[in-house]
Write a structure and sequence with these properties.
heterodimer; A: alpha/beta; Rossmann fold; 2 domains; B: mainly alpha; two-stranded antiparallel sheet; two-stranded antiparallel ribbon; 14 helices
Chain lengths: ~425, ~375
Amino acid sequence: MKKLVSLVLTAVFAVTSCLSLAGCQSQPAATSGTTTKAEETTAGSKGSDEAKPAEGSFKVGAIYINSQNDTSGYTFAHHKGITEGMKQVGLDPSKDLYIVDNVPEDDEKVKQAIDQLAGDGCNIIFGISFGYINAMNEKATEYPDIIFSHATGYMSNEKNFNNYFGRIYQARYLAGIAAGYKSLAIKNDNIGYVSAWGTEYAETCSGINGFALGARSVNPNAKVYVYEISTWGDQEKERQAAQVLIDTYKCGVIGQHCDSAQPQIVANEKGVFGCGYNSDMTAEAPKAHLCAAIWNWSAYYSTAMKAAMTDKASFMQTVGNYYQGLNAGLVDVSPLSENCEPETADAIKLAKDLMIAGKWDVFSGVKLSFSGKAGAVTVEQKNDALKDNQGAEKVAAGGASVGDDVIQGSMNYYVEGVTQVN
Amino acid sequence: MKKYHLVRRPRQSLGRLLIYYLIGITISLGIGAILLASLGINPFEYYGRMLTIGMIGNKYAYKNIEGFLKILVPLLITSLALGLSFKMRFWNIGGEGEFLIGAISAAIVAFNVTGLPRPLTIILMCVAAMLSSGLLGLAVAFFKVKFNTNETLVTLMINYIMLYVITYLGKTKEDWNFFLDPKSARPIFGKFPETGIMTGIKIGNFNLLWSVIIAIALIALIYVYLKYTKHGYEIAVVGDSNATAKYAGMKVGKIIMRTMFISSAMIGLAAGLTASSSGTISETITNNVGWTGIVVAWLSKLNTPAIAVTSVLIAILQFGCKTAATKYPSIDSNFADLLQGIILFSVLTADFCATFTIKKKEDAKND
């Protein structure tokens, strides 16, 4: 009897776990516009059959803060970048990729992950979360033969340890243009922004500023209301923040710097508009979403892996500390949805071309302004000082862009037109 | 179903227990194998990697032993400590909280006491950790003895309080906060000065941490303490029945407070050693030993040598599941946790079946 009971119990347990696993797996297929894991793997093995490098000669290690089986968010974007990057350089992600996932920002656990990846013979190890910094720095000395590459950090050495990040503020500027046109069309100057953090982190701060400058290039009266949720991702808080911005601050467009699509979903429910982040969120918010600032991490990963495969010793000369933007294709905006105003595409293209050509950048003493109907949109560059929201001048009219160190590290002010509401 | 009920088996036999365990583990590994195969992974290869804690084909296999020992030592000491309090039926489920306060205290010493030689600093760290954890445990026992508070609730809440304390310390960038890395603009825990970081005995490349030796010594110590000392006898009697202990002239309150102090101080020691061997602290420093330790203690029936063996097995399971998953990009640590859960669940089921049997009601009456 008891054996029967335990057998039944275990069987039920097994079936449910099978089902839940299957459920997890089928989920990515539902999100349109993103490559599913299964597709990636098959495509990967196909690719390796055609252009095969020396089998097992180069192994890639990755340390993730969440799981590679995520279907959206930060780890998802990096995993997609790494697997696509590997295929571009002829590696097979199903064989040559070693992953330690769900690694918290805990030195001891990061070090153990690195030891494991080193032991498995990885030639390059990517760590995607900021808090891995000290452990990676330390282990880079211990394993001089392995390249260590750390996202969002600031440490590096001369031989085998670099950091990488991207000018996502450029992409946010472009998304801001879309938001600006929308705000003109709906005759509502209030734009909301759900942000993980405010001025504490240059990463969020520069993103907010880029978005606001983009919106104000089209609609000079636009005001950006920032709601800080004090965590990188919490679906419930993201939802509530968007609700407050729409209901209390009467915002008609919702931008975001947080993990999930909840702000866009709320915008969709409430009949307003929004700009997502990390992935094209049109599927989640079909009636609301305009375009999203997105990362295309494979641009970096393929560069880094190619350099490490060709000549490891010169990695810090060929790649070095990597900080690129629209020019390298590392950041971009997702395809414009049908919700966008007709002028948006032209204006974004004009701004993008200027940035790719290196003729203009967001945080400088020159502001762009757009005019004209769709098909005949023109851009004008005007000398105009970059001021913070207290009126203090940060860059004089006509001045060059603030340094990368400011954008990455020390920017702690909001530009004109930005207000934090909490 | 009314006709049947659960009866504890009259005689416990080790042989039966082991056979049941074997059956349970085989079933769970079988389920795991089906899951693995359905994901396109060779289960034998996976299990091979898991049971050898990822050492096969590993360039730095000794590092995996080091990593494994770092997981094992805190689990072992915490399980021993929890076993002590469980033995007198004191439901201390505050292992996490006691561990965290110990780690914080050790970090306070490590960051502020500089200039002393390394061994002395580390001993100071451990003493601070043991005192803080011990006093916390003593306070819980005091309330239990004095006001008959529910120790399960109190210790449970302590876990959350301490977790939020350390999270606060880790996320608050202020001038007074010496726990953080001063070089980083974003708040992250800093590294201890060199004098606060434990070394070990070098055997070739392999580094045998002092904490391992201390843990082994503790097994012997606790074994002797429980089996051959007056204190150990008192704990056993209090566990059997408070009334008996009182009748025999034992001061039950004192025994409870003393034992809780020792038990929590041991968890503090585990925390001090862990902090010192990692050279920093973090919110996740406990590695859930406060919870896993409960499972280990009960699976071992609070028997000291069994606790040692069980913690080794559980640590292999934990470390092995994670390292095995590394090689297969399609499975993440959630799968490793799932597999761990299936195995633990089946072992507990096997344990239950070996301890209890289902009898017909009439039979039971005749007993």
